[in-house]
From TrEMBL:
Residues 1-22 form the signal peptide. Residues 169-336 form the Calcineurin-like phosphoesterase domain. It comes from Corynebacterium qintianiae. Residues 451-472 are annotated as: Disordered. This is Metallophosphoesterase. Residues 50-130 form the Purple acid phosphatase N-terminal domain.
């Protein structure tokens, strides 16, 4: 059964920032809203991940038709300002103008301030991001399925999403980046109007103050495939394979491979499989970790474990992930938390002790861990579905084990019907993923990966108290 959860009693005051020479769109259907993701002519801006740890791929919408730039400098030295020109990103959206620009060769450990725009058209308000110090100990945040707009409740789900993003940033203030694993928006309903789903998602300031990556989910294709143009125009993807939305980037000692799992027919899966093989062969040799981002959940009790699409994806891609040495696959889609056993292709490695938060998993060659994360927006949740195909509202992990209802590849699951985020701590010898209930800061799951021959102590970090959503 699909659960619909109302937003909590959270409030946010948003104000527009006036900028000299600001111009408004002449279109009667202008999608520029009067919220904090707007500054002058610039709106729905994101400081996206670049090809490597010292790069940023910017994307923004503009109400100004002239040339625009990204102007940036170290906060410690404004006199060192540089600017790069943008180009129009036209994938067929007609209600707004999108622009892309890239900045490369940034200095590790430096905080940069930037503005987007031009002297003639106006500049956005200053924003900052920090390039991490470039060593092999670093952190990133993973979220999924903000899916703003379920049941047309854009405003309250936007509040939930901003709160989740704020809590994640408070828990990991030094995070190198945020990753969003698809379904940023609902799709049906108002997508790009002033109170629409894209404006609501982009209203989280973390999209401009952290390097941010996203992959498309199935809701990026709703109400029709034409809607994918909005994803393409909003995300300046590094190292993209043609126009597929399959892309990769490198971050310190990790290689990230982002897949467009909407292409789930045989040809699309073969293309993804070959992209993974080629990317690991070309860029994975000097990396400690290979991480795949894929929207659809291969191992989840969210109701789709036996669906034909999921079975086909699992059967086709899982052996490839093990073949090339993928360590971790991060999934969304099912709006509940699930952790697989270590999987060698389609075969689970089942330990004697039942899985629990705090597990340290020693992985052998060819073994991959799959994690499905819960929603960051809270518009809907899915009940547990057992291996008998029945749904069990309110089912607990303990009871599902006692009754033998768990799927054979799933080690641990949690459904508390609240929003979550995950903080991933990376080092050369371990990968720790700590998933947290955003509503109260309680622990959802904590699992550490080490390779055979290495040891690691369980994480003893405590979740942070949820942050109050600040006004801007």
């Amino acid at each position: 059964m699909l659960k619909k959860i109302a937003a909590g009693a959270l409030a946010l005051s948003l104000t527009a920032v006036p900028v000299a020479h600001a111009q408004s769109s002449s279109s009667p259907n202008s999608s520029a809203p009067s919220t904090s993701n707007v500054s002058g002519p610039i709106y729905r801006a994101v400081a996206g991940v670049g090809a490597d740890a010292q790069s940023v791929n910017f994307s923004w919408r503009s109400a100004y038709a002239g040339a625009e730039f990204v102007r940036y400098y170290p906060v410690s030295d404004p006199t060192a300002a540089q600017q790069v020109p943008s180009r129009e990103a036209d994938y067929g959206a007609i209600a707004y103008l999108s622009r892309f620009a890239e900045v490369h060769d940034l200095t590790p450990g430096v905080t940069y301030e930037y503005q987007i725009g031009s002297d003639d058209g106006g500049w956005s308000k200053p924003e900052t991001f920090t390039i991490d110090d470039g060593d092999d100990n670093w952190t990133f945040v993973a979220v999924t399925d903000a899916q703003i707009g379920v049941d047309l409740k854009v405003a309250e789900q936007a509040v939930n999403w901003r709160q989740t993003a704020a809590n994640a940033a408070a828990a990991a203030p030094d995070a190198s980046m945020f990753l969003s694993l698809g379904d940023q928006v609902e799709g049906w309903g108002d997508l790009i109007g002033s109170n629409g789903q894209y404006n609501a998602f982009f209203s989280a300031p973390q999209l401009r103050n952290f390097r941010f990556a996203a992959i498309p989910g199935n809701h990026e294709t709703y109400p029709s495939e034409l809607s994918t143009r909005h994803f393409k125009e909003h995300w300046n993807l590094p190292n993209e394979l043609g126009d597929t939305s399959n892309y990769f980037f490198e971050q310190n000692n990790a290689l990230f491979i982002a897949l467009n799992s909407n292409n789930k027919d045989d040809a699309g899966l073969e293309q993804q499989a070959q992209f993974v093989r080629d990317t690991v062969a070309s860029h994975g040799g000097d990396k400690d970790w290979v991480i795949v981002l894929d929207h659809f959940a291969f191992h989840s009790h969210g109701g789709r474990y036996t669906s034909s699409d999921i079975v086909r994806m699992r059967n086709k891609l899982s052996p490839v992930f093990s073949e090339v040495g993928v360590d971790l696959v991060l999934n969304g889609h099912d709006h509940m938390h699930n952790r697989s056993y270590l999987m060698n292709g389609l075969t689970p490695k089942v330990p004697e002790a039942p899985a629990a938060p705090g597990d340290v998993l020693t992985k052998d060659k060819g073994e991959t861990l799959y994690l499905t994360l819960n929603t960051a927006g809270g518009g809907k949740f899915y009940d547990y579905q057992g291996n008998d195909g029945k749904e069990y509202p309110g089912m607990t992990l303990a009871e599902s084990r006692e009754r033998g209802l768990n799927q054979p590849t799933i080690a641990f699951w949690n459904q508390d019907y609240t929003t979550d985020y995950s903080v991933v701590n990376v080092s050369d010898d371990k990968l720790n993923i700590r998933s947290v209930n955003s509503a109260d800061g309680s622990l959802v799951d904590d699992v550490t990966l080490v390779r055979s021959g290495q040891t690691a102590e369980p994480s003893d970090e405590k979740p942070n108290v949820p942050a109050e959503e600040s006004s801007s």
